[in-house]
Amino acid sequence: MTKVWKYGDSINTDMLFPGKYTYTCGTAEEILPHMLEDLDADFAKGVQSGDIIFAGRNFGCGSSREQPTVGFKAIGIKAIVAEGFARIFYRAAINQGLVLIECPEAVQAYKEGDEVSMDIDAGEIIIAGQKFNFPTLPKEILAIRDAGGLLAYTRGKLG
Fold first, then answer.
1. pLDDT digits (tens, 9 = 90+) for 15-47
2. What pTM value is reported for the model?
3. SS3 of 119, please?
4. What are the structural domain ranges in the chain?
């Protein structure tokens, strides 16, 4: 069953991945144990591939470090659904092929324990039987996601 992790507004990159590890953790394996350690000590131990994150406004604000998006992608987070994203985090997520969805109504409707399913390609999230639509992602973003990130997508185009 898909687990949902829910957080509030203005979750910054230091909360997602502590800055004190910026220059000592370079690989996904080094990053993973520290994901959200100062915000949610249970996250790194309990998160699984296919889980979803719900969050409030301005998710990913702060510095431009890439470790949070690398970590989320390596974990296999299905999507991050938020009321809004910081622009620099949004760009870093695209580079990793991580799916970000802005759907404030879904975030506000979700209550702990609700069953959640989503069809990213169709632009819908179902929470406790209630359907929420969001604009489908552009085909270029989906192609980057399907390739595994911008680098793999670019190599495929040039290769």
1. 999 999 999 998 999 999 999 999 999 999 999
2. 0.95
3. strand
4. 4-158
Distances (CA, A) of 46 to 3, 37, 40, 43, 56: 9, 12, 10, 5, 21
- The total of other beta-carbon atoms located within 10 Å of residue 152's CB is 14
Fold of 4-158: Aconitase; domain 4 (3.20.19)
74 pLDDT more than 90:
yes
Task: Record the tokens describing residue 139, joined without a space.
Answer: 């085909």
Sheet holding 4-6, edge to edge: 4-6, 52-55, 79-82, 100-102
Long-range contacts of 33-36 (CB under 8 A, 24+ apart): 34/71, 35/68, 35/71, 35/72, 35/75
